Amino acid sequence: MEGSFRTLHPTNTGTHISTTITKLQYFWLGKYLFVKESLRALISGGLIGAIRYFRFINFTLHKERLLNHDDKGVINLFIPPVPSKPFSRIIRSYSDTFVLRTKPVQLHNILIATTGRCPFKCWYCSAAHMSAQDLSIKDLQKIIAILKDWGICIIGFTGGEPLLRTDTDDIIRQYADEFSFIIFTSGYGLSRSRADQLKDSGLFAIAISLDDHDETNNDRARGFSGAYEISLDAIANARRAGLYTVVQSVITKAMIEQNRVGQFLSFIKTIDPDELLLLEPLATGNLLAHDNSVFLTSKQRKLLRDLHDNTVNDHKLPKIHSFAYTEHYSRYGCGAGRQHAYIDTRGNFWPCNFLPISLGNVLKKPSAVYERNLRYFSRPCSTCILMEDRAEIQQLFTGQLPISFEKVQPYLEKRFERIKDSVMPEFYRLMGS
């Protein structure tokens, strides 16, 4: 890794309690749960059930740098820490679906836009062309009750900028035992006291955006002068508060082509978050009608996958989680409607926060939304739906997001027929789905 930079914020500025652990140490932290579920798989599913269970566990932990955070084992921010009630529910759900095969696949991770307001103007913003309104607390309570009934384990608050609201902290406090809560933020408003309050409320993780180690480049990408310092201060405050701290970054073509990714990773290591979430520009929001010039090539996407692999054991680099890795056909494939989904400020249900189509309004017809998601997204897909079908989705766009279910249904029906004989992602093939 070549290049140099000036470190503006010193390392070890406060409490940073995560440590790398082995698989054995991870299992020890969740020993009672893992033993209980393995015996259940053996008793209910026989030898085949036990084999499937251990395949599932081994696949999940493969090429992951495991951490101990607050005396709990962490794989990544999208899997609840163990031991916890949300982790118990998610492993039981996977066991029922893939080991014992007694239930259909269930969603586990839902992002909720609590507000459309945001002081930043990111060039790649996925929330563009959407309502800037707030989701009322009454509607948020109703949505969470629905998600609890659906068996959801992880809830992420996003926006807009979710930290513009403080009343949602009480929601986290109320349901902290039931869900693993994450906040996705620019860092705007994350003072030391606010970070402490969120930790006290029961927030598990916070993902803070930082797109470049160069202040000028970062602020230009974020559309806000001072965004760089806001992010670095927020990361430091989150670490001091003991939150599981994630830096989320959109890796661009320019950064790759200019060979600046190595410098960026080295810089991230100096500010020492628990995890680095690597994203890429996607054809949604501001970029829905854009041409290919800003989107990564398959070769560049492979670089993000390789980074995930290379940093598992290289502790000179940050722990990396990348959708280019987890949603590759060699892992789980596209997670839209299967592993995650999104609800906007008006209650519209999207299969993914980057897939700008609605399956209906969860506040009005939750059962219909659930059934539509089960029908159109129950089959595993080896490639990102947005990347594969971008042209078709662009043709349906008329200036307002999300694209309504009535308008998108013919496309979904055609896609449903088209993917019937497609190749399964490796996880589902291994589990015999």
UniProtKB/TrEMBL annotation:
Gene3D superfamilies: Aldolase class I
Name of the protein in question: Radical SAM core domain-containing protein
Boundaries of every Radical SAM core domain copy: 102-327
Coiled coil residues, start to end: none
Claim: Metal-binding is one of the keywords in the record: yes
Keywords on record: Iron, Iron-sulfur, Metal-binding, S-adenosyl-L-methionine
GO biological process: heme biosynthetic process
Top-level taxon of origin: Bacteria
Keyword Signal: no
PANTHER family noted in UniProt: PQQA PEPTIDE CYCLASE, RADICAL SAM DOMAIN PROTEIN
SUPFAM superfamilies linked to this entry: Radical SAM enzymes
InterPro entries assigned to the protein according to its UniProt record, in alphabetical order: Aldolase_TIM, Elp3/MiaA/NifB-like_rSAM, Radical_SAM_PqqE_MftC-like, rSAM, rSAM_sf
Pfam families: Radical_SAM
GO molecular function: catalytic activity; iron-sulfur cluster binding; metal ion binding
